[in-house]
């Protein structure tokens, strides 16, 4: 970075409510550790903000001093965009406060909160908004890229539930973006990633959910995968919006409801949530256990917050991760054959391929209603390469890339911006799709000099 004078750091420290972490200090290593262990960046300073005013101070300093600037929400981004080398990181991980208004069914939540913080606050009132499936993900990055999870078929993407946002712009101004205030910025935030400023507060619409929901897993052996996937395809095409079923192919983890001889063998898992009265859901989910002969099943009524955390143990921080993803408008038999082949050659026991079922309410808005453009995606697939040792990097990454190539003929060509890795610069336009040019215009208005460029970047028009 261009040299930041010590006096400027002192001045910043004196004015911040939060604090600054510099290389060599005890908190530095932890601050630069994010979810994906393949990311190894060394920022020159972290500004750990606790208020919007702190964020304004940091943005102004970065702009005035010409620093590279990254923004950390939950630190889950696979491309490592929460960090930068040599520059400043605005770390929001202390800004997690949430406030629910049950009367208007709204929540406001700070920009460093995790999904677990959001779910805990809203479920205290039996309310929720659609977010992702892993509770340690940051609400900020997830929302700014679109956001989908178990409730999305019923209630839409996370961005479809965004009411307003408080944003610190590149000029250091604090603005509120909503349908009526800075509507161009509001539109761009709904899928345009971290390009437009630091979001210090989000406001979401809420819906009655649970707090107890019907959810769980049905596990089939890989030998039955083709039939199971074909029946899954037919089932999802007719499922009501309340019912969300994802399919995951991987080696079976040692889950207590699976017989020990199944652990470590290749399986197809159907994971489901019914976002309605569990009694109504029970007969609807029953056919999912008849697609073959399951080797295990755990379906029942449990707290929504428990289901939101069910996958956390498989997705802990600290492993090495590499992703490749496609959007699909439909699932072809040829795709099933390809997936089954690749699951037969998994390069590590933690790798998996999943199909997240979107559809329903996610597909009804027009592609230009928000910056997120992929209203044609019935399914989002992620090839999740995951392993422990750097020595396996090449093998695991090659497997993910090879499968990505082999499955490309069946895909729409669109890409989910939140699943793009650091080496997928050539897919950024596909991620913003038909909305790219409009986004570039909004970028020019709010960040003409591209201060916010450590992200899936949009070049100012
Ligand atoms: C285990 C796991 C499970 C996932 N499951 C899902 C899922 O079910 N559904 C889904 O839609 N996605 C899912 N994702 C993808 C997730 O949406 C992205 O990784 C997202 O970028 C994470 O946001 P974050 O705040 O944690 O990340 P960060 O790495 O902190 O940030 C991501 C990007 O957003 C920017 N940013 C962060 N905070 C702010 C802010 N406050 N203001 C402005 N810019 C900001 C950053 O600069 C960066 O460019 C998952 C990711 C992981 C690792």
Quick structural gist:
With 461 residues, this protein is of the alpha+beta class. Helix content is 27%, strand content 23%. The chain contains 14 helices and 18 strands.
Low-confidence stretches: none
Give the number of DSSP strands. Answer: 18
Terminus-to-terminus distance: 26 Å
Order of strands in the sheet with most strands = 15-12-14-13-17-18-16
- Which term fits the overall shape? globular
Q: Describe the biggest sheet?
A: 7 strands, antiparallel
Summed up, the helix count is 14
Mean pLDDT: 97
Question: Taking Cα atoms only, what radius of gyration do you get, to the nearest Å?
Answer: 22 Å
Ligand species: flavin-adenine dinucleotide
Q: Assign the structural class, choosing from mainly alpha, mainly beta, alpha/beta, alpha+beta, or little secondary structure.
A: alpha+beta
DSSP helix fraction? 25-40%
- Measured by DSSP, the beta-strand proportion falls in 15-25%
What does this structure look like?
The relative contact order is 0.13. This protein has 14 helices and 18 strands. The strands form four sheets. Strands 15-12-14-13-17-18-16 form a seven-stranded antiparallel beta sheet. The chain has 461 residues and is α+β, with helices and mostly antiparallel strands. 27% of the residues lie in helices and 23% in strands. It is globular, with a radius of gyration of 22 Å. The model has no long low-confidence stretch (mean pLDDT 97). A hairpin with a 4-residue loop joins β5 (98-101) and β6 (106-110). α8 (225-238) packs across α11 (333-343) and α11 (333-343) packs antiparallel against α12 (393-407). Residues 35, 70-78, 81-82, 92, 111, 132-134, 137-138, 140-142, 144-145, 147-149, 193-194, 198-199, 315, 418, 454-455 line the site of flavin-adenine dinucleotide (FAD). Flavin-adenine dinucleotide (FAD) binds at residues 35, 70-78, 81-82, 92, 111, 132-134, 137-138, 140-142, 144-145, 147-149, 193-194, 198-199, 315, 418, 454-455.
């Amino acid at each position: 970075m261009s040299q930041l004078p010590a006096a400027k750091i002192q001045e910043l420290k004196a004015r911040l409510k939060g604090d600054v972490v510099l290389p060599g200090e005890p908190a530095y290593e932890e601050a630069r550790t994010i979810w994906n262990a393949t990311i190894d960046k060394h920022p020159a300073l972290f500004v750990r903000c606790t208020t919007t005013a702190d964020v304004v101070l940091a943005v102004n300093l970065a702009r005035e001093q010409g620093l590279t600037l990254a923004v950390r929400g939950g630190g889950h981004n696979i491309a490592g965009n929460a960090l930068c080398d040599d520059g400043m990181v605005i770390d929001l991980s202390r800004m997690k406060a949430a406030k629910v208004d049950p009367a208007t069914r709204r929540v406001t939540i700070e920009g460093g909160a995790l999904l677990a913080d959001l779910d805990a606050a809203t479920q205290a009132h039996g309310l929720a908004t659609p977010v992702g499936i892993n509770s340690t993900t940051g609400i900020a990055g997830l929302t700014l890229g679109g956001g989908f999870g178990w409730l999305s078929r019923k209630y839409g993407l996370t961005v479809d539930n965004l009411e307003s946002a408080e944003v610190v712009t590149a000029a250091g101004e604090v603005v509120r973006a909503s349908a009526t205030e800075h509507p161009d910025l509001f539109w761009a935030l709904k899928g345009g990633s971290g390009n437009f400023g630091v979001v210090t507060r989000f406001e979401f619409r809420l819906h009655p959910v649970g707090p107890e929901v019907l959810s769980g897993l049905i596990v089939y052996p890989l030998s039955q995968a083709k039939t199971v996937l074909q029946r899954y395809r037919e089932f999802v095409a007719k499922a009501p919006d309340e019912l969300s079923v994802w399919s995951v192919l991987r080696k079976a983890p040692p889950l207590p409801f699976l017989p020990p001889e199944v652990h470590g063998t290749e399986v197809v898992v159907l994971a489901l949530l019914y976002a309605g009265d569990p009694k109504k859901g029970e007969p609807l989910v029953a056919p999912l256990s008849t697609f073959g002969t399951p080797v295990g099943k755990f379906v029942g009524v449990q707290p929504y917050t428990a289901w939101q955390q069910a996958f956390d143990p498989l997705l802990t921080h600290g492993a090495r991760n590499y992703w490749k993803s496609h959007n699909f408008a439909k699932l072809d038999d040829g795709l099933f054959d390809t997936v089954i082949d690749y699951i037969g050659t998994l390069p590590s026991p933690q790798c998996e391929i999943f199909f997240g079922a979107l559809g329903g309410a996610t597909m009804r808005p027009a592609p230009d209603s928000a910056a997120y453009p992929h209203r044609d995606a019935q399914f989002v697939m992620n090839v999740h390469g995951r392993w422990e040792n750097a020595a396996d990097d090449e093998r695991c990454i090659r497997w993910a890339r090879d499968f990505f190539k082999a499955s490309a003929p069946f895909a729409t060509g669109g890409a989910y911006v939140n699943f793009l890795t650091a080496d997928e610069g050539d897919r950024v336009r596909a991620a913003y799709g038909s909305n790219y040019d409009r986004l570039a215009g909004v970028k020019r208005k709010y960040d003409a000099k591209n201060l916010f460029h450590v992200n899936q970047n949009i070049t100012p028009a």
